[in-house]
Amino acid sequence: MLSWLGFEHRVALRFLREGRMQSLLIIVGVAAGVAVVAYISALVSGLQANTLEKTLGAQPHVTLSPPDEVVAAAATPASGAQLLQVQPRAQRPRSVANWQALLPLLDAAPGVAAVSPMVAGAGLAQRGEATKSIALVGVEIERYARIVNLNSKLVAGTLRLGPGEGILGRDLAGDLGVRVGDRVNLVTGTGAGAVSDAVRITALVDLGVRELNRRTVLVPLRAAQSLVGLPGGATNIDLALDDVWQAPGLAKSLAQRWPYKVESWQDTNAPLVSALNAQSISTGLIRAVVMVVVVLGIASVLVVSVVQKRREIGILRAMGTTRGQVLRIFLLQGAVVGALGSALGVGLAVGLIWAFTHFVKGSDGLPLFIITLHPKMALQIAAIATVCGVVAAVAPARRAAALDPAQAIRL
Fold first, then answer.
1. Helix (H) or strand (E) run with residue 349 in it
2. N or C: which end of the chain has fewer CB within 10 A?
C-alpha cells in the first residue's frame, strides 16, 4: 500500500500509525488551533467589514471644503502691550472655489469611484405645529446616490429630486408626522434674513445612523443654494473611492495639489480607526499565541516519539540509513501532522461560522452580521500551520539524527 512512497515517507507514516493515539491527539490539537485562528480571523474581518459598511454607508470617503477662516494676529502696539486673547471668527457657509471646473478633474482621478457636489446647512422643518431642527443637504441626486448608495437605503417612495421636492430621513418623517407625498416647510436663517421653501416628500430613507435619520433633509442643489444663501456655490465636494483604505493617500495628494481643506474618513472617524487597529493587533496576537501552542504541542509529541523509537532509529542507522534520511523522517511527520490538522481545522472553522450565522440572531431575527471564511484566508492559515508543523519537528529530528546506532540499540 505504501510501496509507491519513498523510504522516508513510508517510515514517517509507519511511525505515526504505530503511535495512533498520540498522533490522533496532536492532530486534533492542531485542528483546534487552526479552527480558532480561522474562526477568529473570519469573525473579526466580518465585524470590521460590517462596521465600515455602516459607518461609511452614509458618508463620503474623502471631502473637499474651503479652508477655515482664521483671524490674523494684530500687530503689537507701540506701547509693547500684549494681546492675550483673539476671538475666533464664526464660520459661515462658503463655496469651494471653482468647484464646477474641479468636478471633471476629480472624476478622472485614479481610484475615484464617484464625485458629488453638496451644499450643507442648518435649518428647521415645519409641519403644522411640529418643528424640528434639520441638517439641510443640497445634492445632485444621481451623483449623491453613488456616494452613499441611496438605492439600498430607500424605505418608501422614489429616489427623485426635482424642483420643489425633498427626501427625508425615516425618523424625521415620523417626528413630523408626514409620509411620501406630504409637504414640509423648510426654513433657514432668522428674523428678517429668514428664507423658507415648501417641498413635497418623494422618498424616505434609512441612512443607518439614528441621528442622521432624525435630521437629514435632501433637496436639489439649487434649492439648497437659495436656502443657505450661496447662489451657484457648493460647500463640499464628496468623493467615494474604489478602495476605502486609499483615502488618506488621496487626501494628502489633493491637499498638496489644491488650496482646499481635504479630509479622509479616517480623519473624521479617528476613534473608529483606533478601534479597528486595536482589533487587528489583538487578532494578530491571538494567532501568534495559538500557533506557538501548536508548535510546542507537535514538538513535544515528536520528542516523545524519538524517545520511544530510539531502538528502531538505531536499527535503521545500523542498516545504512543516513542522518539526513532520519532527519527527513521526523520533518515529514511534522508536515503530515500539520497538514492533516489544518484540513480538519478549516472544516471545523467552517462549521463554527455556519453555526454563528444561523443561530446568533439580532433583535430583528436576522444574523448580527455575515461572516465568511474566504478560500485565500483558509489556504494561508493551513499553509502557516503546516510550516509550523515542520518547524516544530526540527529539534526532535536533529536529536533523532544525532543518535549513536550502537547505543540506541543497546538501550
1. helix 323-359
2. N
Give CA separation, 327 vs 18, 30, 309, 390, 400, in Å.
19, 22, 14, 11, 7
Q: Is 204:169 a contact under the CB 8 Å cutoff? A: yes
User: What backbone phi and psi angles, to 5 degrees, belong to 75?
Assistant: -65, 145
C-alpha–C-alpha distance, residues 209 and 226, integer Å: 28
Which residue stretches of the chain have pLDDT < 70? 1-5, 69-92, 307-310, 362-366, 403-411
DSSP helix/strand/coil, 189: coil
AA letter at 133? S
- How many other CB atoms are found less than 10 A from the CB of residue 28? 15
**CA–CA separation, 203 and 386 (whole Å):** 55
Picking from 114, 137, 360, 330, the residue whose alpha carbon sits closest to that of residue 228 is 137
Q: In angstroms, rounded to a whole number, what is the distance separating the alpha carbons of residues 124 and 131?
A: 7
| Rounded Cα gap, residues 172 and 98, in angstroms | 34
Measure the CA–CA gap between 308 and 131, rounded to whole angstroms.
84
In angstroms, rounded to a whole number, what is the distance separating the alpha carbons of residues 267 and 43? 26
Q: Do 100 and 225 touch, CB atoms closer than 8 A?
A: no
Number of C-beta neighbours around residue 185 at 10 A: 14
- 90's grid cell: 464664526
Coil, strand or helix at 356 = helix
pTM of the model: 0.71
Length of the chain: 411
Q: pLDDT tens digits, residue range 125-178?
A: 998 888 899 999 999 999 998 998 888 889 999 989 989 999 999 999 999 999
The 8-class DSSP code of residue 361 comes to B
Contacting residues for 46 by C-beta, under 8 A, at least 6 apart = 369, 370, 371, 372
Nearby residues of 129 by Cβ (< 8 Å), 6 or more positions away: none
Burial of 190 (0-12, 13-18, 19+ CB in 10 A): exposed
